[in-house]
Amino acid sequence: MRTTAKLLIRGFGLGTLLVAFAQTGMAGATPDVVELATLANMYKPTTFDHAMHVDVAACAVCHHHTTGTPLPADSGCITCHGNSGPTAEVACASCHAANPCDPEVRQQTASAATIFHGGDRTGLKRAYHLNCMGCHKEMGGPTGCEDCHPKKERVTE
Amino acid sequence: MKTTRRELLKLTGLAASASLLLGPDKAFARTVQRDTSTQVGMLVDTTRCIGCQSCEIACSEANGLPPPTDKPNAGQRRTTGIDAYTVVNEIESEKSNIFCKTQCMHCDQPACVSACITNAMYKTPEGPVIWRENKCMGCRYCMLACPFDVPKFEYESINPRIRKCILCYDRLGDGKQPACVEACPQEAVQYGRRGDLLDIARKRIADHPAQYVHNIYGENEVGGTNVLYLSSVPFEQLGFKTDLGTVAYPEFTKTFLYSVPLVLLLGPAFMAGLRHATRPGDDKSH
Question: Which of A77, A103, A113, B66 is the most exposed, fewest CB within 10 Å of its CB?
Fold first, then answer.
């Protein structure tokens, strides 16, 4: 076989293995650490200790009904999703738009039925701050800005 | 030319009816209704603001201004200035203090644009009201006209400019959002088409009727502004003027201004015609 062909086949094979390995980490298992880097204009990304929070809170506290275990108190979702199973995507960003005020995003969320519906869709940044800090205030966790994300080096004009 | 009383009355009646046909549309004040739903604007929900000043910092960075030096303080009313296009004020309230962001209201029919002699203050078709440096002559009529006291003048500068929020108009073309909107961690300030923002505001009130005053400030004030506000307390408590009325400010001067050319045209013509019609027959001078 020609060298190019061999290279391609090996490369493809290796790539498939890598992807497969990566997937085993995600599918079904909960990640230990999640890097929250979708929004990083004034602060650096947050390294979120997921493993610790799994011990401290029920899945539904953050993931609402998407993990298939909605809380009875979560009245906003329970009426329709009380018996819904887990969804394919449970990441916060899959339902809470990173850029909610972007006209295109608003257009998409207005018509999409699979993304969190409720008209006044909370964007990602607000969702993080409300959910995380709300609980932290009650439980005595970090509430300062830099407690969760250090400031970024600012580029001054 | 001798004439009869009848001829004179005919002439007068004709002139009057002709001027009425040409006149009333432009001569009489009427708040012009037009579709503002596609213009862009902002929705400020004062129940969500936590006074973090991220918006002020982001605005100062985006516009090359120094960062804010003071914090919102319930005892002091902060105002926008030449170095601060937006400021957050803290207002004392029973439950917890309320924070309110202030900046240019980007009116649909701005008083500043109407007052500007050189068209430096300009209402863009997209919605934001901008100031054009190459046209300004520094008369500050815009400052006098604005009911919200927004434009600020660089008195100390040898080449003074008018400074105010322009809704990041230079960034909007690149598909970006106003810097303050991007920065807000609580989505207290949102950006979008005015029609969409009104829908969101109405829905928010409808979903949480006890939390909000059932009024969107800016929906109808001075003919409608592109920056809209929601509040849990009456707007006067937040420092908003609630006696501005719903007539757009330019409408107050339109009656007079638009009738000037008409009067200057018809007045002399009418007077001349009257003189011509009423002079004695033997008087050859006009």
Answer: A113
**Nearest one of A157, A129, A154 to A44, comparing CA atoms:** A154
Same domain, A108 and A134: yes
Q: Is the pLDDT confidence value at A99 over 50? A: yes
- pLDDT band for position B43 (50/70/90)? very high
> B11-24 burial, b if ≥16 CB within 10 A, otherwise e?
beeeeeeebeeeee
What CATH code would you report for B40-247? 3.30.70.20
Q: How far apart, in whole angstroms, are the C-alpha atoms of residue B227 and residue B86?
A: 13
**Pair of tokens at residue B263:** 């009067």
Number of domain units in chain A: 2
Which pLDDT score, from 0 to 100, does residue B24 have? Answer: 54
Establish if A101 touches chain B: CB-CB under 8 angstroms: yes
Q: How many residues does chain B have?
A: 286
Q: Tell me which chain B residue has its CA closest to the CA of residue A103.
A: B192
Residue A155 lies in a domain: no
> Which of B111, B131, B58 minimizes the C-alpha distance to B88?
B58
HSE, side-chain direction, 13 A CA sphere, residue B19: 18
Shared domain check, A57 and A12: no
Q: Which of A106, A119, A122 sits opposite B187 (nearest CB)?
A: A122
The pLDDT of residue B27:
46
A73 is a domain residue: yes
- On whether any CB of chain B is under 8 Å from the CB of A145, the answer is yes
Q: CA A125 to CA A135: how far, in whole Å? A: 16
Checking ipTM against 0.90, whether it exceeds it is: no
What's the confidence (pLDDT) of residue A145? Answer: 83
Residue range of the domain that includes A21: 1-30
**Please, which pLDDT band fits residue A118 given cuts at 50, 70 and 90?**
low
Residues A89 and A117 occupy one common structural domain: yes
Residues A8, A53, single domain; the answer is no
Query: pTM of the predicted model, to two decimals?
Result: 0.80
- What's chain A's average pLDDT? 74
CA closest to A154 among chain B residues: B61
